[in-house]
Amino acid sequence: xxxxxxxxxxxxxxxxxxxxxxxxxxxxxxxxxxxxxxxxxxxxxxxxxxxxxxxxxxx
Length: 59
Fold this sequence. Notes:
- The protein is mainly alpha-helical.
- The protein is 88% helix and 0% strand.
- It is elongated, with a radius of gyration of 19 Å.
- This is Membrane protein.
- It comes from Streptomyces aurantiacus.
């Protein structure tokens, strides 16, 4: 049952993404940009944290 639920969830997400891309490509591009900015910000935060740890975790 879990495998079928997973397949259905993936199918729904793919259909939604295709729908958004086809109906409003500009908005889809905005969503992609927001996603990449989020990933970039998360990577920057991890880098800052690792630098802080490497410097002895001092303020």
